[in-house]
Amino acid sequence: MDANFDKELFIEKFKNSCNRIQIKNFKKNEIVTTYIEKRNQICIVLSGEVDLIRYDSNGNKTIIGHFVVSDVFGEVFYPANTNNELFVIARKNSEVLFFTYDTLFTKCRRNCDFHKELTSNLTELFLDQIINLNLRIELLTKRTIREKILSYFDILSKRSIRRSFTLPFSYTDLADFLSVDRSAMMRELKLLVDEGFIKKHGNRITLTF
Amino acid sequence: MDANFDKELFIEKFKNSCNRIQIKNFKKNEIVTTYIEKRNQICIVLSGEVDLIRYDSNGNKTIIGHFVVSDVFGEVFYPANTNNELFVIARKNSEVLFFTYDTLFTKCRRNCDFHKELTSNLTELFLDQIINLNLRIELLTKRTIREKILSYFDILSKRSIRRSFTLPFSYTDLADFLSVDRSAMMRELKLLVDEGFIKKHGNRITLTF
DNA sequence: TTTTTTCTGTTGCATATGCAACAATTTTAT
DNA sequence: ATAAAATTGTTGCATATGCAACAGAAAAAA
Known about the structure:
Two copies of one chain form a homodimer. The first copy, chain A, has 209 residues and is α+β, with helices and mostly antiparallel strands. Chain A has helices at 7-17, 114-141, 145-160, 171-178, 182-194; strands at residues 22-26, 31-34, 41-47, 50-55, 61-67, 72-73, 86-90, 94-100, 164-166, 198-201, 204-207. The A-B interface holds A 1-2, 40, 54, 56, 58, 60, 62, 64-65, 76-79, 81-84, 101, 104-105, 119-120, 122-123, 126-127, 129-131, 133-138, 140-143, 147, 154-155, 158, 179 and B 1-2, 40, 54, 56, 58, 60, 62, 64-65, 76-79, 81-84, 101, 104-105, 119-120, 122-123, 126-127, 129-131, 133-138, 140-143, 147, 154-155, 158, 179.
């Protein structure tokens, strides 16, 4: 949005300036946090990738969110009275920054002027998050698996600027992300290949329409 | 979140303090804005209700978002390269506040100190919006119509604190909101009534489980 | 390396959901 | 008040999707 906003710089400041902020490292598949208690926690991915996961009562896994560098997540973004158990898992070795929402409104001991910047920069990160969520909703409101797949591929294609791109998910996880049955999705992918809409080599996709 | 934050007050300030901000009134069914151009517009509902609508190539209507007082919306929250035509329609007579994202970073002529507050308060509104979007995603990722209905009713029930509540939508629109076929949804609603899970009188629902 | 686990690719079958169509009812417009 | 338009309620039918199950490939662990 604002061309002058430098996420990397912001994160660098984050790391160094305020004592109310924690940074932790996680190995692949480690649990980063759970959304059970309401601690008003805000998290920012500094490196790596993490997924927000829900298992429902039928054992269906859904990837609610997939977060990469500079993405924000945390239970503060969820309504208190959700019935679901949500948890965040590191998909790669990851570095995550933690602070609580209250931090925004209270001064830290050092009285760092970092707080002044924090709020305004956070608005920027929140905005990005809203854009991501709207994209997700665009996908999920599509009526058919085919439409979901093609919409998602379209996004990935535009991000990479090319007609070819590598999926950030395994096919198993892609199905969970699009909230559809894996085998049904594989079937639809095969049809898309057979009908000449896409090419597919491993997890590399090429659009041919 | 922050108990001290007073949305009404914030909106009142918004209205009166800054010349970069526009307020417009819309009658029911009037188009509030479209998401075609990229003007980085941010809108806030001051009164009434508005819906963000998408029609896809098959003529399927989807209610992408339903916004009420103090909700934020606008094309700034959407990625630039979306293929869809989205537009916002007033569902009731509504009052909507408009400004551009740039407003946050430039001083207005009056040099109002309103800008200082604007950013930090906006963070609050953005946070609320993220919570709403996450709720929406919760619904949309549910695998069956029944689960979607019950999850949504559960939310409405908790909001009204009672087991009874009035739907904010017509049933036609509810189907569009849950992104399912209307007749299929009506069928599922009937089953839920027959099986004793809910009672249904007009657009008033009572949970009985 | 070898073993174990996870992922991919595929298919038959059951069914939930979408689609089309219509009458009855309610709401909105004239 | 009357006509027009939209919503609700319902059903038969077609099919897209979910489910279960399995073999082979790939990746991770030992």
